Amino acid sequence: MPEEDNNFNFKWDPLRNIADDPDEVLKRVDERLDSLEKERFSGKKDKDGNLENIFSLHGVTRRDFIKWSAFLTSAMMLPYIFSPRVARAANILTRTPFIWLDMADCMGNTEAFIRTAHPTPAEIILNYVSVDYMESIMAPAGYQAEARRIETVKKHKGKYILVVEGAIPTGLNGKFLTIGAKGDSGLKIAKETSKDAGIIVAIGNCASYGGIPAARPNPTSAVGLSSVTNRQVINIPACPANPVNVVGTLVEYILVGKAPQLDSLGRPLWAYSGRLHDNCYRRGHFEAGEYVRQWGDEGAKKQYCLYMMGCKGPFTWNNCTVVEYNQDISFPMRAGHGCIGCSQPAFWDRMTPFEKPNADAKIILPMVEATADEFGVALLGAAGAGIAAHAIYTGVKKKRESKKTSEKKKSDSDKNDDNNDK
Ligand code: SF4
Ligand code: SF4
């Protein structure tokens, strides 16, 4: 289980270190938005009608949009005063040049955004961004498509947003993945296109850490984007990435002109500073020792904790239990299945089997640090007695003490045997 995934020491800086004085921050953000609006819209009518028109096509009212801006502002851990500025930034985002590269992947992120029956404002915004190059939806093909990518890089040098989906195969000098009429490798294209981007976002687990293409034995030597470029890469892992986290990261870039604060795995702290377990609505059952032990059992009907069915929520950092998926109404545990840990590096190797607790994973809670085995044995006693974390702690401690005692007895008896032999 990843030892490095410890965001407990995270210090939140909602004003992103852009100035010490809050008034100065707002002034600088407003100036930046004014200048971007001037650059990207032809006039006031164009600017005011842009998102309004887009949303009205999807039945999203102005009121819904205001509510959504407030939701995104709080998800991004920004003060409420930023809410109208977040709305302005979302509007500008739809006019910012984009290049979206697809590498080795299932295109699950693209599918999740473009095929939603009732898209959320975040998904609508992603559908309407000014994508200058995206193989799956663009009209040009072959040489024309390649020319468009090269032209966008040249024309919008330092300004375009680069989104990469999928892992980069590096084996055989990248030849496991060739793209386009000239047969350039994904590795070459990813490197070239990263060089002059304004900001680079790796979307999904494959682009962030290699994901499933990089799972053992990783025959194509696939890696995440950050391993092939020396530019800063913002990772938005998950399978698929949550549109709220993608749009929030890009909106922040429009607001302040730089990447959000990132953790040691390159993830924006506002989205990935907590574990799913910290905010899960089943957490009370975890503490009370009430677990689903078989699919469809009484515990499942009562929505008990899914830890014993393999839930990886205690080891996974993401905001799924807060912002949720599918029109912000659900996430795996609400649907009755545990988290599979898809936001963590190497989750396919480290989090499997998905429906069993990981034997060597450390559960770290106040007073408790135990592997699933120690935890499970302690739990049987604790659940039987109907008591919670401190009982589990006592159980774990007792189990460790009894293990130490038996090890000591064994070593004493070995010493006696040695003495007898002498
Ligand atoms: S183990 Fe999973 S289901 Fe149980 S409380 Fe934690 S996140 Fe929720
Ligand atoms: S709940 Fe777990 S498996 Fe599902 S998207 Fe979130 S991190 Fe991935």
Characterize the structure shown.
This protein is of the alpha/beta class and 422 residues long. It has two domains: 22-271, Rossmann fold; 274-378, Irregular (Cytochrome-c3 Hydrogenase, Chain A, domain 2), CATH 4.10.480. Helices cover 45% and strands 9% of the residues. It has 18 helices and eleven strands. A five-stranded parallel beta sheet has the order 2-1-3-7-9, with helices on both faces. Helix 1 packs parallel to helix 4. The two termini are 45 Å apart. Residues 1-5 and 376-388 have low confidence and may be disordered. The protein binds iron/sulfur cluster (2 copies). One iron/sulfur cluster binds next to helix 12. It is found in: Cell envelope. One of its GO terms (cellular component) is [Ni-Fe] hydrogenase complex. This is Hydrogenase. Heterodimer of a large and a small subunit. [3Fe-4S] cluster binds at residues 320, 339, 342.
Distinct bound molecules? iron/sulfur cluster
CATH class of the largest domain: Alpha Beta
Task: Give the low-pLDDT segments.
Answer: 1-5, 376-388
As a percent range, the share of helical residues equals 40-55%
Report the biggest beta sheet as strand number plus sense, adding barrel if it closes: 5 strands, parallel
Q: Globular, elongated, flat, extended or rod-shaped: what is the shape? A: globular
- Strand content is 5-15%
Listing every helix as H and every strand as E from the N terminus to the C terminus, the arrangement reads: HHHHEHHEHEEEEHEHEEHHHHHHHEEHH
CATH superfamily of the largest domain: NADH:ubiquinone oxidoreductase-like, 20kDa subunit
Rg from alpha-carbon coordinates: 25 Å
Distance between the termini: 45 Å
The DSSP helix count reads 18
Average predicted confidence as pLDDT: 83
Structural class: alpha/beta
Give me the side-by-side strand order of the main sheet. 2-1-3-7-9
Predict the CATH topology of the largest domain.
Rossmann fold
Number of domains: 2
